[in-house]
Specification:
The protein is an alpha+beta fold. Helices cover 33% and strands 23% of the residues. It has helices spanning 3-23, 53-66, 102-109, 139-153, 158-164, 189-198; strands at 42-47, 72-74, 82-86, 116-127, 130-137, 176-182, 206-209, 211-215, 222-224. The strands form 2 sheets. The protein has a 5-stranded antiparallel sheet with strand order 2-6-5-4-7. A 4-stranded antiparallel sheet has the order 3-1-8-9, covered by helices on one side. A hairpin with a 2-residue loop joins strand 4 (116-127) and strand 5 (130-137). The two termini are 35 Å apart.
Length: 228
Amino acid sequence: MKTSQLQNVYSATNQKTLSLWRENPGIGEIRTERYYDPGKLALATGIRPKVPAPVAGLIRELAALVQGDRLADMLPVSSVHFTFLPLTLPLYEENEPLPAKAGQLEDIWREYQGKHIVIRHLRLVALPGQLLLAGIPDDPAIAMRQSFCESVLKSQWKEELLQRHAGSPLPAPFWHSTLLRYSAQFLPEALRDFFARHQAVDFGEVSGELVLARVNYNWTTCLINRFE
């Protein structure tokens, strides 16, 4: 997807979510399962940028708002990340040896390791039960991700990649970090109001060097270059 299309996609996503919220004033059914296995690790690529002050302030405000709400799963400021391409579902224990074919993945990744990418015009994007911080990457980043994705699809990691993206586009169009996951169908009124107050704000940009790592679902665990 071209950068010129992304802003429209984000806006359309917000409008769809707002429509669902209007039709469903309550939080709906409470989730009995986690979004992802909280203990196991997945293989993923992405950046862990220095967090600009406006983003840090946004997260602190959001964290204060949901303090004590057992349904709210907040991303800590220290774990802000922007996934380049998630590669697998959470499959691995922290100290579990990876399969021998991990070497092939490292070989593919060598071309991309450490490349610097920039994601600009950060804004809130709402899903029915989540709040994302999403932005617009530079064109070279989009081309790199497409190239990397195609290389993985030609490798022994094809099935893991397809399973990770089951039911979603490959690669996924959004460039984002999930700030909050709510364990219900829909966000409560206070979080909807929070989104309404901030949805038009441009929170600046982030940049960072690409890494390949073992991560948990929200990157609070991030083990880089542990593939032996």
